[in-house]
Amino acid sequence: MTRLLNTIALLVTMHAASAQKISYDVSFPNMVHHEASIEVTVTGAPQKQLLFRMSRSSPGRYATHEFGKNVYDVIALDQAGKQVPVERVDGDVYRVNTADGFAKVRYTLYANHPDGTYAGVDQNSIQLNMPASLMWVKELEKAPAEVNFRLPEGKGWTIATQLKPTEKANVFTAPDLQYLMDSPVKIGKLIVKKWSLKNKDNKNLDFRLALEADTDQSGATQFAHKIQKITEESGAVFGEFPSFDYGQYTFLASINPYVKGDGMEHRNSTMIALPVKFDGSNNLLGVFSHEFFHSWNVERIRPKSLEPFNYEKSNMSQALWFAEGFTQYYGELILKRAGFTTLEDIARTFSGLVNTKENTPGARRVSPAEASCMAVFVDAGVAVDKTNYPNTYTSYYPYGASIALALDLELMSRKLSLDAYMRAVWAQYGQTEIAYTISDLQQVLETVTGDKAFALDFFKKYVNGHESFDYTPWFQNAGLTLKKEFEGQAWLGNLRYNGELVIAANTIKGTPAYQAGLDIDDQILKLDGKSVKSESDIKTLLTGHKPGDEISVEYEHRGEPKLAMMKLAENPRLVLVPNEKLNLPVTDAMQAFRKSWLDSKVR
Ligand SMILES: [Zn+2]
Predict the structure, then answer these.
(1) How large a percentage of the chain has pLDDT more than 70?
(2) Is 245 domain-assigned?
(3) For position 2, what pLDDT does the model report?
(4) Is residue 346 exposed (0-12), middle (13-18) or buried (19+ Cβ within 10 Å)?
(5) Residue 118 is assigned to a structural domain of this protein
(6) 292 C-alpha to center of ligand 1: Å?
(7) In which domain, by residue range, is 408 found?
(8) Cα of 315 to ligand 1 centre, how many Å?
(9) Mean pLDDT of all residues in the chain?
(10) How far apart are CA 151 and CA 157, in angstroms?
(11) For residue 520, is it within any domain?
(12) How far apart are CA 401 and CA 407, in angstroms?
């Protein structure tokens, strides 16, 4: 009896669930003033009341973003189109009663920040990141959604998105909230270029570049060829492409001075905004290779900490050193392998990574896993008060990439490679889409190397710890020499200035300026008794000194003159130089090492 009742109850619930649907109608009657009009209609809801809400975070953006602030004129309507009450229960949450499972909310969205995180509605161009644009219904996260975009007439605009197309023009669907929120939309004068690549299973995958830029068909074609090369080189790392949903991956790209710089990964697309005039050059490619690598690493090789993504708050993960940092490393490596950068370029990039690891206070203070947790504050998070990040935090992007670099070099010295490791992670957690933990990543390293002690040690010291690496012998394998960039030169610390030697950022612990008591907003007046007015004055003065010299510093702090003694130091900055530039030998073994590391893997 009980069982029978339960079955009936289950059937009723299932029926209700299958009939639930959310429909969006998106139009742009006032795009001149950056407004969109959005209507959300729910049918088949079993609930008496529903909460319509704006998101507070966005996939791939880990800090809190108050998207609800740009929504107004919120009204609710019944099936006859008559206005019914709507109760605002939080800044971004609206409660509405249903009638016969129906509820409708209409609102105006203000959108004037075209990038991958927010939204931009303008008479020239439209791009919508869904969490910044669409209200969703808390009780119906699993319900399918349909979105009808009413494109402005007479402009010849088209639309591009990873949402699933329907038979109706400009009407798309998403299976649930997670996919809907993950699907940005670009509307405008788009030049679309397509190419197909065969996947390992012999199925064709379609790639599209939907480009909004001041260029012609041939400029777009040439640029698409470059992006294609990036896709092929990325595929070679893993030995296959992900099986993109609906068989297609889309690069949405607006390269125009009016956009805000951003690149945002999604499951089957990326939204790229580069605030420059389009010139088709290789300088534009870095963000494309980074974002495309994400279609494996973070979209499918997914940390448990981000699964499922929470749209109501910031999303903390200890794995961003891997999800972002390793992607950062590969973004650079793929550009080199595809022939878009030179050995000198990549050596400069690696110099930056080594300095991040060895010479930033954050990386000397906390582990990559701990640095990852800071994303909830720093990932485009907004604060008005000052922080001590310069002394406490190093970005998990370059920090994680410095770990990837070290691990790649170490694995290559063991006749393996980071590619082999990534392929193993892909096979175990990516293809299967089983969300991973950091100890899972350690386990894969153990399997790939067959060296349990090494995997344990590496994760303990460098992922969950912050010990220093000795990169020098690793780089020597590739005929690259790591050396001090400013050997023997006297240094105050890496100071940046506003106006006339007013210190613009927190001084860094351990540097001469910090030790002497100077801090942000202090103005340097005299060094060693001599008046200084500019950075070049300081530079000139320092050439007469060497590390270890003690000199006086006179400065102004909140209007008061101060005098202190400062012990000059040597700038610890390292630089990586190809041996040939230093007239050092580059052996056949070094050339072979470089080739297997930095040359194309596309067969
Ligand atoms: Zn990224």
Answers:
(1) 97
(2) yes
(3) 46
(4) buried
(5) no
(6) 9
(7) 296-477+592-603
(8) 15
(9) 96
(10) 7
(11) yes
(12) 10
Count of domains observed in the chain: 4
If you search the block for the tokens 């108050």, which residue do you land on?
66
pLDDT digits (tens, 9 = 90+) for 288-339: 999 999 999 999 999 999 999 999 999 999 999 999 999 999 999 999 999 9
Alpha carbons 357 and 360: distance in angstroms, whole number: 6
CATH code for the domain of 494 = 2.30.42.10
Asked if residue 196 and residue 176 are part of one domain, the reply reads: no
Classify residue 418: in a domain, yes or no. Answer: yes
Amino acid at the residue 234: S
Is the CB of residue 526 less than 8 Å from the CB of residue 553?
yes
CATH number of the domain to which 220 belongs: 3.30.2010.30
**How close is the Cα of 264 to the center of ligand 1, in Å?**
7
Residues 301 and 274 both lie in one domain? no
Q: How far is the CA of 287 from the centre of ligand 1 (A)?
A: 8
For 16-25, 170-179, 349-358, which range has the lowest pLDDT when averaged over its residues? Answer: 16-25
Same domain, 158 and 222: no
**How far is ligand 1, taken at its centre, from the CA of residue 173, in Å?**
26
Distance 37 CA to ligand 1 centre (A): 31
Same domain for 149 and 35, yes or no, is: yes
Each residue's pLDDT tens digit, 86-114: 999 999 999 999 999 999 999 999 999 99
Within this chain, do residues 93 and 149 fall inside the same structural domain, yes or no?
yes
* Residue 226 alpha carbon to ligand 1 centre in Å: 20
518 CA from centroid of ligand 1 (Å): 36
pTM score > 0.85 for this model? yes
User: From the CA of 397, how far away is ligand 1's center (Å)?
Assistant: 8
Tell me how far apart the alpha carbons of residues 16 and 32 are, in angstroms, rounded to a whole number. 41
CA 398–ligand 1 middle distance (angstroms): 11
Structural domain ending residue among the three candidates 181, 202, 226: 181
Q: Residues 505-527: pLDDT tens digits?
A: 999 999 999 999 999 999 999 99
**446 plus 339 within the same structural domain:** yes
Residue 401 alpha carbon to ligand 1 centre in Å? 11
- State pLDDT tens for residues 459-484: 999 999 999 999 999 999 999 999 99
74 lies in the same domain as 203: no
Sign of CA dihedral 298, 303, 305, 308: positive
Q: How far is the CA of 55 from the centre of ligand 1 (A)?
A: 20
Which CATH number is 602's domain given?
Answer: 1.10.390.10
* Ligand 1 centroid from CA 582, angstroms: 35
The CA 58 to ligand 1 mean position distance, Å, reads 13
Which distant-in-sequence residues (6+ apart) come within 8 Å of 566 by Cβ? Answer: 492, 512, 513, 515, 516, 527, 550, 551, 552, 553
CA of 117 to the centre of ligand 1 (A): 12
- Rounded distance from Cα 294 to ligand 1 centre (Å): 7
